[in-house]
Every structure is written in C-alpha cells, then in structure tokens.
Amino acid sequence: MRPSSRRSATPLSLLKPGASCREIYRQHNAWLRSHDMPEERRLSVHGMGYDMVERPLIRDDEDMLLEEHMAIVCHRAYSIRECSCTTPTSI
Questions:
Q1: In this model, does residue 65 exceed pLDDT 80?
Q2: Which pLDDT score, from 0 to 100, does residue 7 have?
Q3: Residue 91 within a domain
Q4: In this predicted structure, what is the pLDDT of residue 11?
Q5: Residue numbers of the domain that contains 33
Q6: Is residue 62 part of a domain?
Q7: I need a labelling partner for 3 at 20 to 30 A (CA). Which of 37, 51, 70, 84 fits?
Q8: Is 56 helix (H, G, I), strand (E, B) or coil?
Q9: What is the 3-state secondary structure (H, E, C) of 39-88?
Q10: What are 21-30's contacts with CB under 8 Å, separation 24+?
Q11: d(Cα 5, Cα 9) in Å, to the nearest integer?
Q12: Window from 9-18, 20-29, 58-67, 74-83 with minimum mean pLDDT
C-alpha cells in the first residue's frame, strides 16, 4: 500500500466538518484490521474544551457530526511513520 493511501485512512485525515464520528471510528478500525493490527477499543480521538475529554467522541456509539472549529485531540496508538496524528488539531 502506498504511504498516501495509508495516511488517508488515519483518523486525522477523516476529521472534516460534517463527518460522522461513528463512521470515522468504523473506517479507522477497518484500516487497522487491514494492516493486521487490533481494533481500537479505547477513546483515542475526542473533543477538548473546558474539560480534557468532551464530545464529540470518535467511537461506535457517538451520534454527533463534526462541526467546523471543534477542537479535536488524537492520541496515536501505533508508531507508524505514515500515520501523522497531532495533538490537538482544529477542524
């Protein structure tokens, strides 16, 4: 797989206004499975505001859509050069 296609499947690249948190979670886990890695079970991508962890939460039971200017934190689970997650980011 080309590095650019690896980057496109990472959570950070899927964080766009209007994106479904549930769908981001599902796509990221599909990418992990396709690379023989275990699915993400922890809360690794979430909103940040007055509290350290706030909605939206990138997980299977989140029904929120991302909105422009939300502060989002991405914690990397794996050290893969092509996965360029930073903390924090704003969409």
A1: yes
A2: 45
A3: no
A4: 63
A5: 3-86
A6: yes
A7: 70
A8: strand
A9: CCCCCCEEECCCCCCEEEECCCCCCCECCCCCEEEECCCCCCCCCCCCCC
A10: 21/56, 21/57, 21/58, 21/59, 21/62, 21/63, 21/64, 21/65, 21/66, 22/59, 22/60, 22/61, 22/62, 22/63, 24/58, 25/58, 25/59, 25/60, 25/62, 26/60, 28/58
A11: 7
A12: 74-83
Hunting for tokens 């990221």 — which residue is that?
Answer: 28
Task: Specify the CATH number for the domain of residue 65.
Answer: 3.90.230.10
Task: Please give the DSSP secondary-structure letter assigned to residue 40.
Answer: P
Q: Using an 8 Å Cβ cutoff, are 33 and 9 in contact?
A: no
Contact 84, 50 (CB under 8 A): no
